Amino acid sequence: xxxxxxxxxxxxxxxxxxxxxxxxxxxxxxxxxxxxxxxxxxxxxxxxxxxxxxxxxxxxxxxxxxxxxxxxxxxxxxxxxxxxxxxxxxxxxxxxxxxxxxxxxxxxxxxxxxxxxxxxxxxxxxxxxxxxxxxxxxxxxxxxxxxxxxxxxxxxxxxxxxxxxxxxxxxxxxxxxxxxxxxxxxxxxxxxxxxxxxxxxxxxxxxxxxxxxxxxxxxx
Length: 220
Description:
Helix content: over 70%
CATH class: Mainly Alpha
CATH superfamily: Phosphate transport system protein phou homolog 2, domain 2
Largest sheet: none
Number of domains: 1
Oligomer: single chain
CATH architecture: Up-down Bundle
Strand content: under 5%
């Protein structure tokens, strides 16, 4: 690997990590805000992921420049392509996070404390763990450690899936017995679905990082 190629690639990795860490921070703040629908903390979470499009565009342009200048092959090309896709997954996770904040702040006052404690907090907690682990993986080079961390992300993503299904059943059941509240429950589920999707983005990132090290097939 040429020294300048390695330097440029490390710069890309650092920028991806920086956006990923902001994504983690935003979701940690959401977790903090959920208990009492703290609008100030929700706003702080939203501000943590401002200007993501311009930041990801900068990374994409850097990757295109690397491909044009160095025409990497084999493992180096695998890393560059994976970074390109990881940037996209993190950008989409940031978009899901903004949508969750926007949707949930409109309805969180209507969601009872018991439901928040039993389902919403654990689901967001699993989402945070999944994202945090996947972003940490960016700077891990040991193949065995990467595989172990991938399994951790998978476990948390499955937890988020299961918890969403449970809260969906609960809210649908409540909506069926509520004459005028269907729209309210629909908004709740739409917002909560975004949290579950963020965990799904985390597993995509983790899969790409394993692909960099071990090769194989990219799974979406």
